[in-house]
Every structure is written in C-alpha cells, then in structure tokens.
C-alpha cells in the first residue's frame, strides 16, 4: 500500500521532535554560560538605548564600550528584547528561533544540493539528525553563543551558492545572495565567518560539474560583496571605531597565550570534533549495517562538504584559545558529508517507513509523545536553575535589596567572577565597581572581611554576602 505524500515526512517530523527534546526543556531553565550571558546583557542594554549598535555596552563600570565581537548578534537580540521585554525567557526564545531557522536553512541547503534527485531529497532528515544530535549543537543553542547565530548565515550562504552552481547560467543573483550572507556571518564573529567564500572553486576542484569560468566568476562575486561592504563601512567613523577596538581588544589578544589559552594543544579542536561527531558516526554505522552497504555514489560531494566544514574549523588551530562550541559553524557541513556516505541505509529505512502503515503510525505516535513530553517537561522546568544554583540564589536576593540601576563595589576576587557580573547586569542592571569604598553596597565571598564602614545584611545568601556602608548602629 502506498502512503499519501504527507506521510512521507514522518522521519523528518521525528527528527524535529528528537532535536526539540535535546534542546528545549533545558533551554528555558535559568542559568547560562558566561559568554552567552554577557551577549544577552549587551543585547538587553542595546534595546534600552544603553550604548549603540556600533558602540554597545556591557555594564556602566566594565566594558562600557563592548567590542569583544562584531555587533550583529547584539543588534538582532536587541529586537527580541524590544518585542518581549527583559524577562529571562527573551534570549531563550531568541536561541530557539535561531535553532529553528538553522534547521530549515540546513534543510534548504540539502534540498538545493539534490534539486533534481527526488529520492535523495527526502532523506534530508539524515544530516539534520547528525547535526542536532551532536552534544555541542544543543549546548550552543542552550547558551546563546555567537556560533549558534553565525551558523545560520554560513549555511544560508552555502545554500545560495549551491543554487547558483545548479543554475543553468552564471548564477549572479544567487552568488550575490551568498556573498551577502557571508557579510552577515562575518558581522557575528569576524574573519571566522568568511569561510564559505571557498565554495565555488572548491566545487570546481573536487566535484567538477561547473566550468572554471563559472567557478571564478562565482568566487569573485562572493568575495567582492564582503570586500565592497567593508570598504564602504571603512568610510563610516563609528564602524571604524568599533572594528578598531575589536581588533585590539579581541583579535590581537587571542594570540597572547598567557591570557587567552584554553588548551595546551593546537589539536584540541580536532579531538572535540571527533567527540561531537560520535553520535553521527554511530547512527551512520547503524544505517549502513541495516543496508549492508556504505554509499560511494556521492563521495566527491561528501569530500566537498567535508572541506567546506573543515575550512571553518582548521583555522581555529592557529591559537590555543579553542572551545568545543567553536565547531558549531562548520559542523553542519561535516554532518552533510557523513550523511552522503550512508544514503543507502537511510533510503532503506525511508522505504520501510513509506511502505509500512503500521511503522509509519508508530513513528508518528512516538513523535507526538515526544512533543507532549517536551511541552510538559519544559513547563515543569521553566525558570528553575540548571547551573550556578547558589549564585543565582544570591543574585536574586542581592538584586531585590539593591534595586535596579545600582553600582555596587567588590574586591578583585569577587569582581573577576564574570558570571556574577553578568547575572547582576542581566537581571537587575547592577554594575560592579572594583575596590570602590564610597559605594553604598559591597559584595564579598563569605570568607573575606568587609572594608571598614561596611556592615553585613543578613539576606540568607549562600556564596556571596552583601554589605552596606553606614554608621554602626
């Protein structure tokens, strides 16, 4: 019995629900990795007209001009704060929105690649599963890191360029759109976002289904548009000021091993890549064993996507500042590459589902149960802390006592707790000054004595204590 066409999306729906189950319940809990927390603070401030797009601000006492990253993420996130307000769910809705967009853009890229191959097009669930099952992917979207936004634009650029490559003519318009997406990608995290410029020539060298002339024209277009954009931007003083500070504050400092190194090996990022592709390798092996065959039909195309993905990963090895979530931008291309090698197994499973109404209904039932489970668990866990439990407890008590838009003081040890600074700014817009004994409030850990003139406020805090400057009663 042949099923109606709408039922052929069963595996795609199931993968979407699996992705949601991995991401959503913890996403709406309180607590966030320091980098993403700081980005949320900057975006929130921008929405409140504290700072500008080209000169954003973290707090009124530290990183008053924030230029650790280019400003596009903060500008987009500010729109969400303008629409939704400053509750803790705003940046989480933003992250979910970006994850959904990424899902559809990767879907678009795969479908564009297989424009004239209907059988392979419907196997789009394979690369999506491989990407969203990676631990670093749902971790990144849980924590509002730059890569979770940048990957959307990098994938979009790839999809547009593949559309141009598939087009009968020169594909000027699609290459131009690919170049514009590269501009957006680079405005999230600088030069790292430029890696899709290699796509036309890499396709010519590896796959060889377009002419050298078209590859050169395509590369000139996708390179020229960012180049022209930044040449024009160089005439605008606020942008020049922003990128000048970004270069000195961030890029140049990255090569200072003493202060920025997060690993002792330049090969750390490759080891992380292996760990984060283990789910895809395991699932791919299961599919291949089921079909008793590994696909070699698209081996050149698999190599092409692997090269594109690695071009966004290998450059990270030039410094010792490497973190697992830096992989996220190149990871969907690696996922597509791996998916191309297991299409026989994927097609075997797709046909089983298409031809079996019982299996189809069973998988749809699992998807419905997953959706219900995601909804229930998310509602039960929403707002509860998933990390920094004691710190969030203290921040809530300190914020309630100090009030909004306050400057509190702290010693060096407390002041350099960036998560403390981030939560205070994010939830109460309390800025920390270092060693200022004129401030009304002083925050210290529970092992340290307060400066003269400050007396403890018994708020029931666990990790940090709040002191008030006043005459002794």
Protein described:
The structure is a single chain. Helix content is 62%, strand content 5%. The radius of gyration is 25 Å and the shape is globular. The chain is mostly helical. The chain has two domains: 5-376, no CATH class; 389-469, 3-Layer(aba) Sandwich (D-Maltodextrin-Binding Protein, domain 2). It has a five-stranded mixed beta sheet. It is built from 22 helices and five strands. It has helices at residues 10-27, 34-47, 72-84, 90-113, 118-121, 125-132, 135-142, 146-166, 172-189, 199-206, 212-233, 237-254, 257-260, 268-276, 278-291, 299-311, 331-340, 343-355, 357-381, 389-402, 412-415, 418-428; strands at 407-410, 431-434, 441-445, 454-456, 464-469.
Enumerate the strands of the largest sheet in spatial order, edge to edge or round the barrel.
2-1-3-5-4
Overall SS class:
mainly alpha
Please trace the helix and strand order, writing H or E for each element. HHHHHHHHHHHHHHHHHHHHEHHEEEE
Main sheet summary: 5 strands, mixed
What topology does this entry show?
Elements: H1 10-27, H2 34-47, H3 72-84, H4 90-113, H5 118-121, H6 125-132, H7 135-142, H8 146-166, H9 172-189, H10 199-206, H11 212-233, H12 237-254, H13 257-260, H14 268-276, H15 278-291, H16 299-311, H17 331-340, H18 343-355, H19 357-381, H20 389-402, E1 407-410, H21 412-415, H22 418-428, E2 431-434, E3 441-445, E4 454-456, E5 464-469
Parallel strand pairs: 1-2, 1-3
Antiparallel strand pairs: 3-5, 4-5
Helix pairs in contact: 1-4, 1-6, 1-7, 1-19, 2-3, 2-22, 3-4, 4-6, 4-8, 6-17, 8-9, 9-11, 10-11, 10-16, 15-18, 16-17, 18-19, 20-22
């Amino acid at each position: 019995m042949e099923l109606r066409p709408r039922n052929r999306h069963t595996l795609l729906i199931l993968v979407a629900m699996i992705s949601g189950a991995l991401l959503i319940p913890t996403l709406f809990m309180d607590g966030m990795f320091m980098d993403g927390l700081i980005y949320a603070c900057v975006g929130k401030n921008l929405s409140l007209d504290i700072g500008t797009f080209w000169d954003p601000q973290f707090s009124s006492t530290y990183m008053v001009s924030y230029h650790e990253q280019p400003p596009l993420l903060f500008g987009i996130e500010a729109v969400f704060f303008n629409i939704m307000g400053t509750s803790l769910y705003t940046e989480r809705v933003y992250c979910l929105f970006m994850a959904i967009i990424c899902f559809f853009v990767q879907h678009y890229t795969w479908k564009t690649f297989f424009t004239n191959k209907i059988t392979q097009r419907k196997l789009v669930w394979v690369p999506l599963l491989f990407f969203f099952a990676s631990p670093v992917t749902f971790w990144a979207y849980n924590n509002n890191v730059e890569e979770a936004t940048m990957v959307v634009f990098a994938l979009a650029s790839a999809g547009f360029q593949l559309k141009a490559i598939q087009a009968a003519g020169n594909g000027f318009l699609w290459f131009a759109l690919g170049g514009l997406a590269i501009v957006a990608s680079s405005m999230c995290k600088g030069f790292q976002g430029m890696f899709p410029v290699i796509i036309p020539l890499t396709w010519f060298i590896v796959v060889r289904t377009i002419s050298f002339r078209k590859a050169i024209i395509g590369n000139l277009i996708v390179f020229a548009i960012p180049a022209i954009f930044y040449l024009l931007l160089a005439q605008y003083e606020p942008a020049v000021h922003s990128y000048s500070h970004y270069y000195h504050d961030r890029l140049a400092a990255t090569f200072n091993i003493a202060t920025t190194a997060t690993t002792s090996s330049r090969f750390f990022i490759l080891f992380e890549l292996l760990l984060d592709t283990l789910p895809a390798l395991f699932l791919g092996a299961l599919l291949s064993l089921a079909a008793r065959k590994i696909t070699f039909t698209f081996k050149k195309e698999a190599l092409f996507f692997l090269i594109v993905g690695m071009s966004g990963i290998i450059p990270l090895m030039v410094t010792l500042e490497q973190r697992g979530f830096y992989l996220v931008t190149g990871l969907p291309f690696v996922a597509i590459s791996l998916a191309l090698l297991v299409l026989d197994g994927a097609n075997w499973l797709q046909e089983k589902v298409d031809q079996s109404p019982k299996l189809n209904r069973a998988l749809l039932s699992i998807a419905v149960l997953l959706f219900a489970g995601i909804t229930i668990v998310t509602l039960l866990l929403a707002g509860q802390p998933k990390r920094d439990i004691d710190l969030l407890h203290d921040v809530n008590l300190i914020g309630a006592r100090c009030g909004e838009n306050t400057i509190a003081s702290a010693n060096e040890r407390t002041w350099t707790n960036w998560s403390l600074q981030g939560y205070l700014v994010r939830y109460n817009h309390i800025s920390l000054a270092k060693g200022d004994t004129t401030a009304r409030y002083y925050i210290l850990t529970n092992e340290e004595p307060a400066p003269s003139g400050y007396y403890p406020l018994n708020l029931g805090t666990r990790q940090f204590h709040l002191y008030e400057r006043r005459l002794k009663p």
